[in-house]
Amino acid sequence: MGNVNAAICRAVDAITDAIPNAIRPKKKSKHVNALLIVDVQYDFIDGSLALKNCPSQHQGEQVIPVINKLLDEIKFDVVVYTQDWHTPDHISFYDNLPLRAHLLAKDSKSMEELKVFDTAIFVFDDERQSRVEQILWPVHCVQHTHGAELHQDLSIVKSNKNRQVINLFKGYDSDIDSYSAFWDNMKIRETTLHSRLKGYNVQQVFIVGIATDVCVYATALHALENGYKTHIIKDACRGVDENNINLRLNELIAHGCSMIQTADVKSLI
Asked: What is the domain partition of the chain in residue ranges?
């Protein structure tokens, strides 16, 4: 019987090893875990949309050593790096408002009234008559520019037999912004992130990066909708506006997201 059992075990192992891209939970781990590193890019740190120039006056670079410490000390099964990746004519840029002035809704502020950080309302002349509410930001994270690059001090890890790495570009449709790493803002087009995380059997995600009340928030909200156990690591995030940060985090808590500190992560892995 021993030889038979050994043969069965070898056969099961062979079948299991043949399954591509599947990461199985470690024996002592309750979950397969992913770290989502959101938009740690030059433009949000010392560039055209630096947080230090926003109402919060946060120092975006402060997230980098915290994230690097996490990458060094915690064995995440999957690590995701996201980047805003906008076209030069992107809808989110205040400077591009004249390109779409004819699409402003009747109940939107006029082109003459709108300012940077205001919300414009556009109605697109398509079969859905899509209505888009868009914050107008300074030009930022334009494709193939320095400002769109991940900050040089951020640790960039590689895939290996114990860890998969995903690089995800978002916001590259010129007429639709994409704060979340999972969906565009209109929820018309889904990114590949959910399918790839499910392919790796991920059940739990930890979210860090920039900005807490914009892309971190949107990514966490959609992670919850997709059924992931979701944590925001607060000391590894920085945001745009303190009041909005508090509102967004409370909203996420109401949806089941947990707010933790770096020191809490190891006990949850």
From this structure: 33-87+139-267, 94-136
